[in-house]
Amino acid sequence: MSYVSTILLLIFTTGVYKQLTLTQKTANNCEMTFMFEYPHFVEISVPMNRGKYNLYAYTEGQTMEKIKSMKFYGTPVVFIPGHSGSYRQVRSIASVNIRKMYHIQSNIKFDFFTVDLNEEYSAVFGGVLLQQTAFVSQCIDTIIKTYEYDYKPTSIILIGHSMGGIIAKGLFIDPLFDTNLVELIITLATPHRPLFLADHYMDSYYDQVEKIWGNGLDKPRSSFLSNISLLSIGGGHRDLMVWPCLTYTPHADINALSLAIPGVWTSTDHQCILWCKSLVKSIVRVLFDSAESESDDSIYEWRKKVSSYHFDKRSNGKWFHSNLHPITVKLKEPNVIEWNETYKHQRSISLEKGTAMPIVIHLPLFEKSVNYEMTAEAVNIEYHDWVFSCKPDHHSKKHCLFGTNWSSNSTISVSKHMKRRHITLKMPDIYKLGHSNLVFKIKNTKKPTALNIDLYEASDRTNQILWRFWYGVFDRHLLWKVNVFETIQYKTILRGWSDSICMHCVYNVHMVPIKCSKKHHHAVSKFIVPWTQGVLHGITSDSYVEPLRISLENIPLSNTTKNPYLQFILDPTCNYRIELELSIMDTIGTIGLKYGLTFPSYIGIIILFVLSNQFSQLANSTEDDCSIYHNSLPSIIKVFKILAVTICFLTAIQNQWPNINKPIGGIDWLGHPLKTMVFSSLLYCITNSFMYFATVALWMMMLFWGKAINELLVRFIMKTLQKNATLSDWILYGFGKLPIAVSMIAILISYHTCGTVGLVISAFFYYFLLCTMVQDCIDQLIYYPVMFFKDYFMKGEKPSLNLSLTSIHLHFSLFLLWLLICGCHLPCSIEWTRNYHQSKYLDPDPSWISSLILNTCAGILWQMDIPKRNLKFYALLSNLCMVASIILFLFCQTALFRIAPILTLVFLIITLHQCFSSWIGLQDLIDNQVNSANDKMPQKKVE
């Protein structure tokens, strides 16, 4: 099992490394936005400012003088930066907006404001979230008051990047905030559920946000938020900081990934999402189209239509208006050179030089089954309206004068050359209108144009597969083998993927052309999930091949009964072989990055297992004896037994209290017995292997530094003894009292700065003490590997290491416990370091209590010779460590802030047990000695 764990660790490390380097190895298809004029940020004074935050108005070019004089006339747009984000990141969206305003000469104007949140690390330290929210609320009040009365805005638009989107949603936590001021919120790469819960402040903040915004299922939106449009945009698989599953939120009006947005079709990383030109343009178009409505719809419904058009189903043009696709269109027009009637099920028209006159294709639907569907592909057809249905006139019995327009159902598709639009219509929808004809129109153009039509029975072009995660593991799994020409549409329904054990597995869908009648060909694959917006695309052409990458990592479970499916729009001149392949390294990397958030809890579980075994050895021995860390690890059988029992408890707890372990990052399998067993065992083995090598490395460092530190101390003391005996006595006395002094200094530093700083200082001193303890037996430890090699491989005997290292072994395990607690509180020290120039102490400080308790305990333990022999309750202490490890498994895999308090409590109990040793265990020691002596006395034979 150790070998298997090591192999798993290497595989996971390789997969995670591949994912981390993905953005560097793959080309970024986003074009950078450029500044036409130099940007300026005009500071605006905010009342009751805390000093570290600021508010600025963005300006450039002709608007500079007006903004400097505090004259605003447009709709205010407030940009809220996220984790470590700068207020200057508003430049791309604001500059493109200003350029667009000048270009189209629109009466609609926007004023851009940006908030400086001191680039705080809000994603890892939740203590700043309420402060930032309060300041943004003050900024909005200040912005509204800055406008003159005649131009005072009635609404405001919020754009939040990363954690800035959570701040935008969190404004409504305050009951005094005027909710009527905000009508539109756009979040960019925002984690709508936490990446990880580093402290209870973040947990509480997300709880408050979810309380008013709901979760889309059993908790609906609060009524006062019903008219606020929320648009969430994620970056896709290139964003390794905020994964797609975090950007999805069920209470958003639109959930979209940049690689699925029409006209963008590329994944963006966490910062690129702010300056990707095609995406920024789409956002700006939403702002302008939302502000100008000629429809009778409510403002909320109009914004929903606009955002759906630009971010989900864009049928043609770059701008959306209410009369974009009129419902009824006149079909009989003059100067139509061809009214081509056909009864063929498949029809392809290719006009390489365009057409001088409009062309109309007439497709009768006589005697067609209700199970038929029609898919059409329009290539380079610029006209908005191009597909209709109608009923022939009574007199002509062939041609239609008017028709119903279906062009709004079409969507533009990704393409490497020439613009393409696809549409799929079900014949029952046509028959319900009493229509029996389909009509396609090609406008006159000089550009190459093509139209492909495919009429088919749906059951012939649709297959279903019952999903199995091992599809494509050893060989590509065949989905379709298309051996006929002129067909363009095929569909594969993926049943049961949502219930699959590996919902986060990554697959590649390949469309391999087998035979083509023409040199140039182009095919598109689409991945569609009914309960989310957006379609993922893959391309296969004569000059470019991009497999479709699919994963349910970005799609939480839904109550819908529909299944996700794959749609293939093929080139009618080619035959294809469509195959599914599991991307093993991408899957491992994705799982490693997402599930790696549970590693701290598993590290704590392993350390507690070791402590439990060490205390159990002390309870069962009359000698001062407990094994080294590596020999105190429990057997894999024992671990799996504990996991099996614990998973039963976890399943019951999750079913009874589903919110006790909230899903964070990609960890949403807690409570599912099979998934929990598989992934828990996997994570335990990987963590165990990692800890094995890490502790070996730590021991090697201790051996090296122990000898070096010992030599330095000996030389220093010897030189001092030769000069002044009194001074030497004071130095020796000082070394004896140094642990208490370090403990007290660490407590003082924790109080005046940050608790984690005190923990780190004590950790360094703890390591120094371990190094000095190891130096007493360093020679035998160093030469033991040589002896082992000689005796084991030459004589076949395993040499023994007869060293009394119980104190070092116990201290080593406690030191690992200390390091893990420091790691859990590390975000506090990061935020404290970041804001040190603003304040010398961290407020609030979740690590202060842990630092006070641990440093107090350390000051006691460092002065004692532990472990004490033959004390009572070693068995109970062993059981306590085992119970604590189970608690970590049950409640701390998704709530990392619970780990430190539990481990701190364990450390405190161990200290109390050793500290009050003089009050317990003396009688047990006498009894053990008597029993041992009686066992050794020879028994007289009684006749």
Task: Give a verbal description of the structure.
The protein has 943 residues and is an alpha+beta fold. It has 24 helices and 29 strands. The strands form five sheets. An eight-stranded mixed beta sheet has the order 1-2-4-3-5-6-7-8, sandwiched between helices. A six-stranded mixed beta sheet has the order 9-15-14-18-12-10, with no helix packed on it. Helix 9 (277-291) packs antiparallel against helix 10, helix 16 (725-752) packs antiparallel against helix 21 and helix 22 runs antiparallel to helix 23. The longest helix has 51 residues, at 673-723. The two termini are 56 Å apart. The model is unreliable at 922-930 and 932-943 (pLDDT under 50).
Instruction: Compute the number of strand runs.
Output: 29
Shape: globular
Q: Counting H and I runs of at least 4 residues, what is the number of helices?
A: 24
Tell me which oligomeric state these chains represent. Answer: single chain
Low-confidence stretches: 922-930, 932-943
Query: What is the spatial order of strands in the main beta sheet?
Result: 1-2-4-3-5-6-7-8
Main pleated sheet:
8 strands, mixed
Strand content: 15-25%
Task: Name the helicity range.
Answer: 40-55%
Which class of secondary structure composition applies to the elements? alpha+beta
Instruction: Note the gap between the termini.
Output: 56 Å
- Average residue pLDDT: 83
Radius of gyration: 35 Å
